[in-house]
Amino acid sequence: MVQIFEGTSSDGFFAPQRFEGEVADCEVAGTIPSDMDGVFVRVGGEFFYPPKYPQDAPLHTDGYISRFRFRDGRVSYKGKFVRTPRFEANLAAGRNRFGLYRNPFTSDEEVQGTNATVSNTAPMVHAGRLFTLKEDALPIEIDPVTLDTIGFHDFHGGWKSETFTAHPKFDPLTGDMYAFGYEATGLASDDIYFYRVDRHGQVQHEIRIKQQPYVCLIHDFAVTQDHVIFPFACYYTDMAQLRRGEIHWKWDRTLPSMIGIMRRDGDGSDLRWFRGPERCMMHVFNAQSDGDRVTLLAPFYDGNFFPFFPNVDGSPWDPRKAQGFVRKYTFDLGSKDDGWSEETLFPTPIVDLGKIDHRYMTLPQRYAYTTFADPSRPFDRARAGDPGRPPVNSYARFDLEDGVMASFFAGDTHSLQEVTFVPRRGSSAEGDGYLIGTASDLAEMRTELIIVDARSLEEQARVILPFRAATQVHGYWWDAEELGLAEKEAAA
Fold first, then answer.
1. Which of 196, 339, 352, 369 could bond 299 through an S-S bridge, CB–CB 3.0 to 4.6 Å?
2. What is the rounded average pLDDT for all residues in the chain?
3. Apex 232 CA angle, 227 and 237, nearest 5
4. Which residues are within 8 A (CB) of 209 and not within 5 positions of it... i.e. 6 or more apart?
């Protein structure tokens, strides 16, 4: 997740820009694949106004949504700030009135009670609607053509949690969405609400859990055809900490790393917690169930990943533990053992913003994709400057069947953000499609969208913006039909 805090620099490529932009017909180098008809949507953030406290977490930046629209071999771009209640309150005052990350006690008195989400983490499309997500609030609906903010969405009154995950999962066999909210009944509460929402946007099943061992950050989760998997570790909060005016999360390595597993169609009474060594559990690739055997593929870290969330014991942040690897976790639900087995499948350190061919979510898979810093590749410091650490310069494709890693190099002045898989139209074969994502050209001070054939890893095209686009946390691709774009664009 290194992309998240690259944007904290006050100068250089990642300095705040505070503008909303549009390019009707982008410059393209190469040839856009003719079957690409849809949108690549990115969500990230930057501080529209400087943070109230200089030590605030960069996760607290104002949400920004951008969209690359592909059609007939051409690409347009649009980007806007998400007009959250917090954004509007700050704009009215001309300054940042909100305090530390997810701590309302540090905000100005006049905005107490205002929903303070920045909705800056991920986009989602469901039931023909586009949303921005952050796990401290409900989804915010966005007009997919104009990118104007519509407002909070509670799935027609069926969603009772106060919060919604940044990483919902979709069953490719049914089209159902599975999602959850932690701190579901309020700040620092230990409730988790889990839901199944059908393809029409109606809540069909709810599970309320009051068994969370401690209040922890649960950023991502996994779903199989039979089970739900909740991983978390060591990030802790409580009301006393927040009332003292401290940031929402601290890392307490004395707490156990834990992974909860329950049936996805049950009532939560079978929820079982497994315990393991210190891990930072942020994102997952995929998971499967085979009877009592559950496997999870995930790029977990060995310790505290975020340097801006302090260690409880006062020790300095250790970058050596902030390295992720492709790992496989196995759980035996038929055993009384509450541990798990862990296997590191590839030795290469990676960025944990990983993707799969989403048509194989919950199902057996062969390929996983992510970005990484390849030190064997050249970097032109004379032109690009000093980024302070090795640049994330390559895409990785991991073949889980053959145990082979292949890579694509973006360039000697480039820093990549998260990769996304786009299926090739008309093909159902896993991995047949494209890898796309934005790259920061540090020498030219501009953003480029790179399109790579996912099988050959040969570059197809680059969409070149004449400026540096806002930094990204997560981005996804949707075909035009999933959003009804032809009809909505005709009506706009």
1. 352
2. 95
3. 135
4. 191, 192, 193, 194, 262, 268, 271
Question: In which domain, by residue range, is 294 found?
Answer: 2-491
Residue 248 carries which side chain, given as an amino acid letter? H
H or E element, residue 487: helix 485-491
In this structure, what token pair is assigned to residue 143?
A: 């007009």
Query: In sequence order, which residues have a C-beta less than 8 Å from that of residue 178 and are 6 or more positions away?
Result: 168, 169, 170, 171, 194, 195, 196, 197, 223, 228, 264
**Cα–Cα–Cα angle for 183, 189, 195, rounded to 5 degrees:** 40
pLDDT 10s digits, 158-172 = 999 999 999 999 999
Tell me how many degrees the CA angle 470-475-480 measures, rounded to the nearest 5: 115
Give me the helices (H) in 94-249, please.
Answer: 239-243
Q: Which residues of 9-21 are buried (b: 16+ CB within 10 A; e: fewer)?
A: eeeebbebbeeee
Task: Answer whether 110's CB lies under 8 Å from 54's CB.
Answer: no
Instruction: Give the residue among 404, 403, 421, 298 at the shortest CA–CA distance from 357.
Output: 421
Cβ-based neighbour number of residue 30 at 10 Å: 12
Q: Which DSSP category does 234 fall into?
A: S
**Domain containing residue 405: CATH number:** 2.120.10.30
Cα 353–Cα 80–Cα 61 angle in degrees, nearest 5: 55
Which residues lie across from 181 on neighbouring strands? 193
pLDDT digits 0-9 by tens, 448-488: 999 999 999 999 999 999 999 988 999 999 999 999 999 99
Q: Is 172 helix (H, G, I), strand (E, B) or coil?
A: coil
Among residues 137, 167, 166, 165, which one has the least CA distance to residue 152? 137
How large is the C-alpha radius of gyration of the chain? 21
Which residues lie closer than 8 Å to 345 by C-beta, 6 or more apart?
Answer: 325, 326, 327, 328, 398, 400, 403
**Cβ burial, residue 358 (10 Å; 0-12/13-18/19+):** middle
Alpha-carbon span 431 to 429, nearest angstrom: 6
- Threshold 0.90, pTM exceeds: yes
What is the domain count for the chain?
1
- DSSP-assigned letters across all residues of 393-423: -EEEEEETTTTEEEEEE--TTEEE---EEEE
Each residue's pLDDT tens digit, 258-292: 999 999 999 999 999 999 999 999 999 999 999 99
List the Cα angle 88/440/56 in 5-degree steps.
Answer: 40
* pLDDT, average across residues 111-134: 98
Whether the Cβ atoms of residue 372 and residue 396 lie closer than 8 Å to each other: yes
**From CA 150, how far away is CA 130, in angstroms rounded?**
10
